[in-house]
Amino acid sequence: MASIGQHAVARPASLIFARSGFVDRYFYFFLSLVVAGVVVAGFSRTVDQSLFHAAPPRPVLLWIHGAAFSGWVLFFILQSALVRVRKVSVHRTLGWFGAALGALMVSLGFVISIVMGRFDAVVLKHPDPAFLSIPFLDMFAFGTLLALAILWRGKPEMHRRFLVLATCSLLDAGFGRFDYVFNHSLFFVCVDLVMLLGVARDLLVDRRVHRVYAYAIPALVLGQNLAIYLWRGAPSWWVSTCKETLGI
Fold it and tell me: Mind listing the pLDDT tens digit for each residue in 185-227?
């Protein structure tokens, strides 16, 4: 009887360890595909009307911004795949390309948010200056998390989590292409759900939440709520600051 009981306990435990091992091996590559899926699903709804066949035509800089953003998604998938197939040396070499691309994205992100904010107000006659809080937060969060990932590149467990959070911080642009999500300001909630996949992975595999998630996710949520307040609440000081920034 004792041996039967031991087998009954051992079998579920072995299944748990097998599943956690599978998650440990494939989680980051799976997450990179989730990121790509969100981007494709979201932007496929608007890219034709808002970029390819837009009337009036959008600024050329928007094309460059889109190419850089797409390049980052592909880079994130490639880097995850290289780690999965144990091509770590190639992963590290390409990492410097990613650092340069990320820096370019931050610069482009701030500039294009101003360019498009002015375009919407002046050309399309749909001014929403307070919305600058959303792309500004995205670029601040992405740039900060990417810098931390580079700083901690010698510690893979920290490095990969900072990169996950940096990439997830950009996903509101994809989620926001769904009308219901945008109109109800739920795009950051969707982003947080993707980030929580990393927390779930840690709990399953490591039985604890890594301190990167424990500190960074609450800080990001705080920033998200502040950005939503500045946009939807539109305090006068913020609106006037945005108008001056946009030159409208």
Answer: 999 999 999 999 999 999 999 999 999 999 999 999 999 999 9
Q: Verify cis geometry, omega within 30 degrees of 0, for the bond prior to 56.
A: yes
Q: Does position 11 have pLDDT exceeding 80, yes or no?
A: no
Residue 132's SS3 state is helix
For 78, half-sphere exposure in the C-beta direction (CA atoms, 13 angstrom radius) is: 14
Q: Alpha-carbon distance 95 to 85, whole Å?
A: 16
pLDDT band at 8 (very low <50, low <70, confident <90, very high): very low
Contacts of 142-149 with C-beta under 8 Å, sequence gap 24+, read 142/102, 142/105, 142/106, 142/109, 142/166, 142/169, 142/170, 143/102, 143/103, 143/106, 145/169, 145/216, 146/99, 146/102, 146/103, 146/106
Measured CA to CA in angstroms, residue 153 lies from 4, 81, 198 at distances of: 48, 17, 18
Q: Please report, for the chain, how many H helices and E strands are present, in that order.
A: 11, 0
135 — phi, psi (to 5°)? -65, -30
d(CA 95, CA 10) in angstroms, rounded, equals: 42
Angstrom distance (rounded) from CA 198 to CA 244? 39
pTM over 0.70: yes
pLDDT at 71: 95
- DSSP 8-state code for residue 149: H
